[in-house]
Each structure stands twice: as structure tokens, then as C-alpha cells.
Amino acid sequence: MALTIDLTDRVALVTGGAKGIGRGITEVLLEAGATVVTCGRSEAAPPAGADHRVCDVREPEAVADLVAGVVADHGRLDVVVNNAGGAPYALAAEASPRFHEKLVDLNLMSALHVSQAANRVMQQQERGGAIVNISSVSANRPSPGTAAYGAAKAGLDALTGSLAMEWGPRVRVNAVDVGLVRTPDTADHYGGDATVAEIERTIPLGRMADLAEIGRVVAFLASDLASYVSGASVACHGGGEQPVFLYVAQNHHVGPEQGESK
């Protein structure tokens, strides 16, 4: 029989779900039949069919009110996607302690606050629930210029496994370690289309992900198709990042006979 991702009758909350990667996730969940609520620190226009709430997910009290409001309006909460996050470029030696604290709050602690509030609801539901944390490849390799962000995402992957163990069998918790993704701002961020094309040549699949590809991984993890998947950090990065030494060697046409393998 054909396998489809069916989230009909599921209520989902996507933090930061009105723009960027979060918007792509919201669109896929809506396509799969879910009722979706997005949230952000300010008013925003989510994809058609979604509802948006204003909430600073770094504040536990605000998060508790957010989750209570979703349940009051929709009667349940089946899926949470902790997508809120990000970081501007800043060298660790120069950034202030407050800057680092804010990044950890946004990229790690906010996911814990939302997950705790959601878990209290999901544990009481016959069908339980699913939590998906949007992490990053920065969790698993050095992240120069975004050191606190990388450390927070490593913490998010660790948190995922711990919560899955504590909250099962009623609640499944997984993470998606996201690589490079094309958004409307990609070319501006990297300095133009030519630079983006050069970056994409370093990715084994030859391109950055599009937004829907991240959303489909999230939808799978939220669905019954992933009913025995919990505590996992799923890599969604197109095959990984090529080692710098190999990229340099290839660009200088260094063949096997010229290099040394170990």
C-alpha cells in the first residue's frame, strides 16, 4: 500500500513558524492536514491556514500561556516543533557575556521551556505527542563566529535524547540537524549567486536544501510513520560538509599520486 504522511486531526505548534525554515515546516504540516499555530516575538503573517501568536519563547511564563491558549482553542496539542533560533556572526573573544547568554536562551533554553509545557499536556492525551527540535550541523563540528550557537545546538541534541528517555512512551522527542538551506535571503547572506554556487559544489548532493525538504523530515518525525523513532538526531545536510583540505586539494588538481592518505 502507498505510504503517506497524514497529520489530519493533529494540532501542531511551530515556534518561529512564520518565516524562514519555520515557514517551510509550517507549510508542509498544513499540506499534511495538521492544524498549525505559529509563534514569534512579534506579529507576523503565517502561511494561509495557520494561526499566529505573539510569544517570547525565552520566557517560561509566556510559553505556559501560549500552550494553554492553543489547548483552549483547539482542545489538544499533538506536535511541537522547536524551530525558533539563530545567531548573528560574532567572534567569541569579542562578544559580551550577555550576548552569549541570549543565544543560549534562544537556541537551547526556549526549546526546553516549550517542551516542558507541551509535555504536561501530551502526557495526559491518549495519543501522547511528538516533539521535534530543529538543531544544526553546528552541533557536531566547530562553529567559528557562532560559538555559543554551536554549543547551544549541541546541547539541544543532548537534550533531545534525555527528554525522549524521560518522557516515553507517551511522548516521542527527536531532532533534525539541518545543514545549508536556500531561503529568499541566501544570495544576499553569502554575497551573491556565484558564491552560493561555489558553496553548493562542496555539498555531496550538489545543492542546498529547499525549505520543503526540511519540512518533510519534520512531518515524518511527527507522524505515525515514525512511531518507533525517538531520541534520534536526524542529519538533513545533503551528505555532509567536505573537509577543507580535500576541497583545496581538488581545486588545485591534486591527484591520488600526489597526496598522502591515512
From TrEMBL:
<keyword id="KW-0560">Oxidoreductase</keyword>
<feature type="domain" description="Ketoreductase">
    <location>
        <begin position="10"/>
        <end position="184"/>
    </location>
</feature>
<dbReference type="Pfam" id="PF13561">
    <property type="entry name" value="adh_short_C2"/>
</dbReference>
<dbReference type="InterPro" id="IPR036291">
    <property type="entry name" value="NAD(P)-bd_dom_sf"/>
</dbReference>
<dbReference type="InterPro" id="IPR020904">
    <property type="entry name" value="Sc_DH/Rdtase_CS"/>
</dbReference>
<dbReference type="InterPro" id="IPR002347">
    <property type="entry name" value="SDR_fam"/>
</dbReference>
<dbReference type="InterPro" id="IPR057326">
    <property type="entry name" value="KR_dom"/>
</dbReference>
<protein>
    <submittedName>
        <fullName>SDR family oxidoreductase</fullName>
    </submittedName>
</protein>
<comment type="similarity">
    <text>Belongs to the short-chain dehydrogenases/reductases (SDR) family.</text>
</comment>
